[in-house]
Amino acid sequence: MNKNDVLNSLNPEIVAKFRTAIEIGKWENGERLTDEQRQTCMQAVMIWEHEYLPVHERTGYIEKPKDDKGNTVGAECDVEHEHHYPNVRDEGVVKFR
């Protein structure tokens, strides 16, 4: 699946279910996630978040600290660069079963 296929197959409800499964390590029916399922869910959640959520609401967001003068430390690096997050190629990255 490419990035657009993933985005077209997800909605907020599915993403919420994936997040819960990742957090507790189980599906709603109590079945444990495999390592591969956990990785696939995490990729899907991150792709969806990158498309639909503001930066500060995404998984893994770390607020940049301020120095003594109130300047943002690391402000010269914009997290919106494609090489930062999620760095997904368009072909065959996520495999749904």
Label the overall shape.
elongated
Give the end-to-end Cα distance, rounded to a whole number of Å: 11 Å
**What composes the largest sheet?**
none
Quaternary organisation: single chain
Extract low-pLDDT stretches.
Answer: 83-87
Provide the succession of SSEs: HHH
- Secondary structural class: mainly alpha
User: C-alpha Rg, in Å?
Assistant: 16 Å
What percent of residues adopt helix (DSSP H or I)?
A: 25-40%
Mean of residue pLDDT?
82
Strand share of the residues? under 5%
Task: Please give the count of helices.
Answer: 3
Number of domains: 1
State the total count of DSSP E strands: 0
Organism: Moraxella caviae
Pfam families: DUF1315
Protein name: Protein of uncharacterized function (DUF1315)
